[in-house]
Diaminopimelate epimerase (Tabrizicola soli), 279 residues
Amino acid sequence: MMDSLSQSGLPFMKMHGAGNDFVVIDSRGRGAVMTPGLARAIGDRNRGVGFDQLAEITTSDSADFGLVFWNSDGSQAGACGNATRCVSDHVMRGLGVDRVTLVTARGTLRAERLADGRVSVNMGPPQRDWREVPLAQAVDTLHLPLAGDPVAIGMGNPHCIRFVPDAEAVDLAGVGPGHERDPLFPQRTNVEFASLIGPDHLRMRVWERGTGITLACGSGACATAVAAHLRGLTGRHVVLEADGGTLEVDWREDGVWLTGPVARVFDGVLSPGFVAAHR
Ligand SMILES: N[C@H](CCC[C@H](N)C(=O)O)C(=O)O
């Protein structure tokens, strides 16, 4: 494995899910190759490739494939809905099927391709208990004792959702970092700002833990839709307008389904020297 990396480099794909931007590395049939240092180096938009998340595909005994997610600061994410949809599309095309199962830190998930080409994934049930999000102390997750009266929801990763009159007007870079690192969130948090723009229709903007501003966030869309329903703002089926595209969330009996577009943008190879220098 090290031989092929040091001789031919490391192939990757660039994929987009509603503007959420991913580097995908397919490590099926060999061991996982990612390290925090290599993830940070690839994630650097000037010195590497740049991504919102890096997704590494692994071989799984119990599902069609496994997935591990990295943020551009070298931390791991327990969930990434849009990368799950993108990678599922890639694996389904390779296997010639329209449905797959995959294993993430959250457990086994199911994904499928719809007739219109969009890809859906069941992200599992929302985590509403403060211990699961996780929060640092026992508080009502539907009304956090923080500025703006936000909601906390876990989707395999933590989310802090704030409903505002106009998400457009929020200074994400100004307020995102403070929310991300609020002591109430011991593992930091992703931050969503959302406003109702029509019946079951939300505008959302995102500050992601470990990455910053992104054009969309699938687990964030799920958490936002769940929070909107619990607050009485919407039904269980919600359309969300992110900066990079439209996502649909359907909170069903069996879990929170996330649907949206996927695109494979380009394929590349990280040079052997780059990999060796950062691994
Ligand atoms: N973009 C991803 C979520 C990344 C979350 C990550 N920033 C974390 O640390 O949890 C999505 O589509 O769900």
